[in-house]
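Example 3.
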Amino acid sequence: MTSRVTLTDVARAAGVSISTASLAFSGAGPISAATKAKVLRAAADLGYSGPNPVARSLRRGRSGVIGVVVRKDLRQNFRDPVAIQTLDGVATTLGESDLGMLLIPTDDASGAAPDLLRHAAMDAAILLNGAAASAPSVRALRERGTPAVHVDAAVRGSVSIRVQDAAGMRAVAEHLRGLGHTAVGVVTLPWGPRAAPGPLEVSRPGRSSVPYTAARWAGLLEGGVVPVVAQAARGSWVEEGIRAGHALLDATPRPTALVAFSDLLAAGLLLAARERGLRVPQDVSVAGFDGVDLPWLGGDVLTTVAQPIREKGRMAAAAAIALAAGEPARSAVLGVDLRPGTTTGPAPS
Amino acid sequence: MTSRVTLTDVARAAGVSISTASLAFSGAGPISAATKAKVLRAAADLGYSGPNPVARSLRRGRSGVIGVVVRKDLRQNFRDPVAIQTLDGVATTLGESDLGMLLIPTDDASGAAPDLLRHAAMDAAILLNGAAASAPSVRALRERGTPAVHVDAAVRGSVSIRVQDAAGMRAVAEHLRGLGHTAVGVVTLPWGPRAAPGPLEVSRPGRSSVPYTAARWAGLLEGGVVPVVAQAARGSWVEEGIRAGHALLDATPRPTALVAFSDLLAAGLLLAARERGLRVPQDVSVAGFDGVDLPWLGGDVLTTVAQPIREKGRMAAAAAIALAAGEPARSAVLGVDLRPGTTTGPAPS
DNA sequence: TAGGTCGGTCGAAACGTTGCGACATCCACC
DNA sequence: GGTGGATGTCGCAACGTTTCGACCGACCTA
């Protein structure tokens, strides 16, 4: 039902050859103004709305679509301001090049890549958020020969766009040490696709299989902070922060500072502290990671590490565009920025 | 660079005709197990990863892609839990049919439909959130002959999926009247693409050009509540709720109840009231619309009208799938449900 | 043994474009 | 007046698939 009328019909109606009619639309190649007008006129008369995109793609060998691989549960995915801003950056840059953005939800837990990923028409793919960098997805793209850009994860032989996770967390650690904190509690992002959420053995937590989670933990240690108690979250959600917050504040001796691997988690920590009647930062300091806006936090300004999220998305899109065109693309690691707020202060004596 | 090897190569390598090789993949039509295995074997050897989706689409006359038209600024769009859940519903249902989801950001303000909307390959389109139902987008789809499903907006001659906006707001109005409130302040969703945000003339506000905003306002009146003061928001954001909340609470006499056209706005109202040291609901009642989770609200449970957001998305997707297949689809208006919480109470005497 | 059926395979014709090379036509210039 | 270069226009061959109808054995039934 799309368009029954084709370029052939238009050409016939205009009294020109198909090639000429094509020129009138593609704009590439010499064509007289008169002929062009004649063709466009005929097209309008027939209700022809431009060349069939599928046929054009086939002929050109490019679909004009970039696949964006996201977590299956969009609800949880998009509840995360980081994911949203990344996506926004991607959309902005793709839009500037008039490229389509095909959303491909994948389920990390299931062992197989979705059909869409294996069969949809696309010139390149962007795997968002590291989480989607699960083996099946990556393998499926390899098999298809579709070039891929990984965000927040380094994959051998692929382009990746990341931020300085370790350095950022190191800065937080040093900030807290400078304030005299020695008893620090931590809530991390999920430790791995199949790792259980909840208490984490602080002495030897093992290495997280999520690249940025591992890097942030490492940064903490590099900065000289060895957490006295830690919790792994199920996701970057406020509720998880609240839950973890209570768990961490139950520890004895009570930590004087809490660090979260995301701002949403940090917000949860803050709320948990408030629920217990603890003053922030007098009784307990709280720091996060990401640098997103949390307008509902009230007067507090969260101490956090700002990462250039939107820029990350833009760079990923730019890389994907290059790869789609057959050009090389470079990986990048973007800088982060410790932004002290009102939620961290000197350790209580 | 996608796949240089084609079905022709595979057929040759397997020693069968191209048609037979095609059958081995499409599965449609009779083919002996032996031949099929032979073909798949040859395909694996050559690194052939299945039929080229573009060529298949051209031949089949269907692209397997549904366009989803959203507001240009994804950041603001996806900050809205309603939009996200709708999208989640759409994604779920499309995923079940292995259909692709092409995100098409549109700028309502600009007069033209984006190139993507006019030229991308898709079998049908879903216009989300009413906001995207601006004339240029709709016209562009009409011209292309692409069937469209409108969410939260009724467009003549198109399928639309909506909720009972008026009835929901009427229920809120009756609820508040039952509690004895007579001085009610309101913050609405944007009044129109070009309408100025800020104070609204309550006696004759004019008709909102946004369908659901108009319907909710009408519902309020039907329920017997004539606002004593009103503010139009710029969008469904907490910050706007806070701003509007202060403006509304500045009115004299101060309203005893505040109604918001969305839960995010209601959350803002709540925060504004708290900032002023007002007790909710003893000093002022607050009600919202949507029924989304706001885990960071603290102990309060917002009185609101729950709408089946995810279901709305699913129905829109189902309708789009039907239209894409050339089948008819029905419009629908989904029911809503007043859910009294702890934020509304008797009017102070 | 002849006729009918059916499972399996194949050729060829689309699907709707684009772009290369060929071919006119015309003007300018020596 | 002939040569050369623009300038438009056109035919034709892809692009990689699917699908329709034809074909050909083999098996079944009368």
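Residues 124 and 145 of chain B are 9 Å apart (CA to CA). Chain B has a mean pLDDT of 92.
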